[in-house]
Amino acid sequence: MGKFRLITKGLVKENPTFVLLLGMCPTLATTTSALNGMGMGLATMFVLVLSNMAISATAPYIPDKVRIPSYIVIIAAFVTVLQFIMQAYTPAMYETLGLFIPLIVVNCIVLGRAEAFANKNSVVDSACDGLGIGLGFTMSLTILGLVREILGSGSAFGFKFIEGDGILAFVLAPGAFLALAYLIVIFRKITKMN
Amino acid sequence: MEYLIILVSAIFVNNILLAQFLGCCPFLGVSNKLSTAVGMSGAVCFVITLATLVTYLLQYYVLVPLHIEFMQTISFILVIAALVQMVEIILKKISPSLYQALGIFLPLITTNCAVLGIALIVVTKEFTFGEDPHMLNLVESVVYAFASSLGFGLAMILFAGLREQIALNKVPKPFKGIPIALVTASILAMAFMGFSGMVK
What we know:
Chain A has about 190 residues and is an all-alpha fold. Chain A has eight helices and two strands, in the order αααααααββα. With about 200 residues, chain B is mainly alpha-helical.
């Protein structure tokens, strides 16, 4: 498979949110606005690319029996690096995303890619795969965040264009489930038409 | 009285699944049948309470005295993974019947974000249960963890019951599977919003 295909497959065909339905916790919890969704997506992408590369480089030396704990330690190490970087350069975003940054460790997308792709492919291919899936995840989270922000607070990427309050429920929990449900339905309709 | 407030707050007002979105993967993944939902809830209840007790001790008796709090994420996930493995081995030996009931769910729990999430919440967040904001002590932490996992079980079992009913009905084609489950979850979350404001 070409490098370009590896990167683009995560956007539509193997979209982690709308098709594979992985990593639901951060998807639902952090998408209260488009920017928050995008921040969470990029943070996950950072960990995904680096852990994919590290795991594909070390996979031949890790005994099969202890591979899952080893992958978790590698992923946790990169998450700790990410925590330091975010605390230093984007403290406001780090505060907003809060608990869900350390919880990238248990995001099924990251461990899933390690097990399904990175441990049997080359370092460069694994990096492309991580980038592709990461981009798909970022795109989905930004779209979901945008929909919830427009309906919930009448703004997009922080720019307010409707006076007054929106439908508050879309910022709170019920709206997260509802918006995601309808986005999956729309995604299924569109991709079937193509 | 304070423990009662913690219980009500964690089960109904700040339900771990429907208000905080922790543990959504098993919530959507294994809620097709009521019996599996009950088994999963039982296993989660057991592991969350035990894991929170162990990670609380780890945080305050190892990480803080040694000034290596930045190792929190790595050490917590390792401890949880080891603990789950250990629980599995012990259960197999001393209570085969319980192992039969919970067994298949235990390996899944290591990567359940509710376990790591609750363990991190009790050592990082300040709570106000009736008095000034304060960090939870050991007993409060364990009660909070237990109450949260009861909340998880409640939401999970309600949701599985609803999904069993939905499976019998006609659903528009694009909504089949997860989307209709998400719509159901949304309505359930709306019902739980009715509790908000009951406890500060």
